[in-house]
Design a protein that fits this description.
By secondary structure, the chain is of the alpha/beta class. Helix content is 36%, strand content 15%. It contains twelve helices and twelve strands. The protein is elongated, with a radius of gyration of 22 Å. It binds nicotinamide-adenine-dinucleotide. Nicotinamide-adenine-dinucleotide is lined by residues 73, 94, 97-98, 101, 146-152, 169-173, 201-203, 207-208, 229-231, 255-256, 278, 280-281.
């Protein structure tokens, strides 16, 4: 086999299996930055997850590299500009985690609507506080989806199984995809006023930075729940703290933060917030799918 692939971070075996018949595979999950610069010239493709940084220095030493593959969503650990300058393709697998993130979103919604995580702590503290944990049903409630791309659409599908109505804010969505999913497209203000549960699935851009701040919290329903499994910084955390501590809204579920990890955040003191450590995309199925998707892309390039 004349093609050689370096797997520099551990990926699911199924991805490696896909490549075995088209390339020689070298797995080195502890390769250092210096070793990578020295050895990269031997390879036609490299697969990384988060540990390995594919810097300009690495790319400039890569004499025959054709593809840099990130078996996951973001490509923050790859110098895409340097790769583009040398005509090297950078690929990733953004679709691999959509269902996984949508399921985590549903988990946070359920945890907040039924106060599951504080009820769990209470029982483990030896208490039996049934009246403290009165919940709300999701059936018949309105879900507001901010950003209806890959993940937002999966959340819509799942919310229908819970009997929820859906409104969507996404200025870039087509009429056709809205009607296919059976959702009503509204402006942001209408979504904030009408939704019982809101969930954010937009990228962090100058346009979406602090999209949800004090003026937006002020027009939400009193029992509103807001979820952010997209990127920290889309919700203004100071304003969120104020809204939650004044019981202006019912609760919030966050997987992402303005600063990660969020040290000594005042949010830690509140009962009506559920926090997870940026794990919305972390399932074995999503990792498997990411490995298979990038392996198939590499295969296609090798086979012309
Ligand atoms: P996507 O590109 O498929 O969808 C994003 C949607 O947002 C698009 O429909 C786009 O039209 C819309 N949008 C863009 N700007 C907007 C704006 N200003 N207002 C309203 N809508 C806007 O992306 P996706 O795969 O669904 O991912 C969504 C987000 O989830 C991304 O930011 C991604 O980084 C994040 N994410 C987080 C995790 C995690 O671990 N928590 C994992 C995967 C993805």
């Amino acid at each position: 086999m004349d093609k050689k692939v370096l797997i520099a971070d551990q990926i699911n075996e199924k991805g490696i299996d896909e490549l075995k018949d088209v390339a020689e595979i070298v797995s080195n999950f502890t390769i250092s930055k210096e070793e990578l610069v020295k050895e990269i010239a031997d390879y036609d493709a490299i697969i990384v997850r988060s540990r390995t940084k594919v810097t300009r220095e690495v790319i400039e030493a890569a004499d025959k590299l054709k593809i840099i593959a990130r078996a996951g969503v973001g490509v923050d650990n790859v110098d895409v500009q340097a790769a583009t300058e040398r005509g090297i393709m950078v690929i990733n697998a953004p679709e691999s985690t959509s269902i996984t993130v949508a399921e985590h979103t549903m988990g946070l919604i359920l945890s907040l609507s039924r106060k599951i995580s504080i009820a769990d702590s209470s029982v483990k503290d030896g208490k039996w506080e049934k009246s403290r944990f009165m919940g709300i049903e999701l059936n018949g409630k309105t879900l507001g989806v901010i950003g209806m791309g890959r993940i937002g659409s999966q959340v819509v599908t799942r919310s229908k199984a819970f009997g929820m109505e859906t409104v969507v804010y996404d200025p870039y969505i087509t009429e056709k995809s809205a009607s296919e999913l059976g959702v009503t497209v509204v402006d942001l203000e209408t979504l904030l006023k009408e939704s019982d549960v809101m969930t954010i699935h937009v990228p962090l851009t100058p346009e979406t930075k602090h999209l949800i701040s004090k003026p937006q919290f002020e027009i939400m329903k009193e029992n509103a729940i807001i979820i952010n499994c997209a990127r920290g910084g889309i919700i203004n955390e100071e304003d969120l703290y104020e809204a939650l501590s004044n019981n202006r809204i019912r609760g919030a579920g966050l997987d992402v933060y303005e600063v990660e990890p969020p040290e000594n955040s005042p949010l830690f003191t509140l009962d009506n917030v559920v926090l997870t450590p940026h794990i919305a995309a972390s399932t074995s199925e999503a990792q498997r799918d990411a490995a298979i998707i990038v392996a198939n892309e590499i295969k296609k390039v090798f086979q012309g």
